[in-house]
Structures are given as C-alpha cells and as structure tokens.
C-alpha cells in the first residue's frame, strides 16, 4: 500500500478578516476533495488571515496514479487566482500491510 501526501502553503494577500480567509480555504478544500478524491484539511496557520496550510493524503496501490493526481492538484492550486502558492511539499511512502 502506498500513501501520497502533499502540504500546500498558500498566501492570501489583501484578505481583511479570518472569515474571508476561511471562506476561500473552505471552498478550496471542498473542491480538492470532490475533484481529486484526496483526504484534505487545513492543518496549520488557522488563526493567520494571510496564510493557510492545506494537507492532503491519498492511499493507493499504484504509485504512478498517486504521482499523476499530485501533479494535477499542484496545477489546479497554481491556477486559482484567489491566492498564490508559496510552497508545496510532496511525499510518497510505502506502508507494510
């Protein structure tokens, strides 16, 4: 079994409140869940209105599939004009069954 993970750090310039930030982050999390079938959550910087850290994970027996999906997620978040991506960390590892 393989597990692919991503941690995406986004910056949200011009955001005036946590409520405004949370609306954007919630929308992004839902879109990533629905479109790419990852487990997704905001994992850090919860109280910062200018930054968000989103964690994603996928389990599969096919490493190529995980890599493709991670690439698609990366393209998707870079194309979103509501924020800019400051960092993406990716990792894949094997879990013994």
From TrEMBL:
InterPro entries: DUF503, TT1725-like_sf. This is DUF503 domain-containing protein. It comes from Anaerohalosphaera lusitana.
């Amino acid at each position: 079994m393989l597990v692919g993970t991503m941690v995406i750090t986004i910056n949200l310039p011009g955001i005036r409140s946590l409520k405004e930030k949370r609306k954007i982050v919630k929308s992004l999390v839902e879109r990533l869940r629905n479109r790419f079938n990852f487990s997704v959550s905001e994992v850090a910087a919860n109280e910062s209105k200018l930054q968000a850290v989103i964690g994603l994970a996928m389990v599969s027996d096919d490493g190529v599939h995980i890599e493709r999906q991670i690439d698609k997620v990366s393209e998707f978040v870079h194309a979103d004009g509501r924020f800019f991506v400051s960092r993406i960390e990716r990792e894949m590892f094997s879990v013994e069954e």
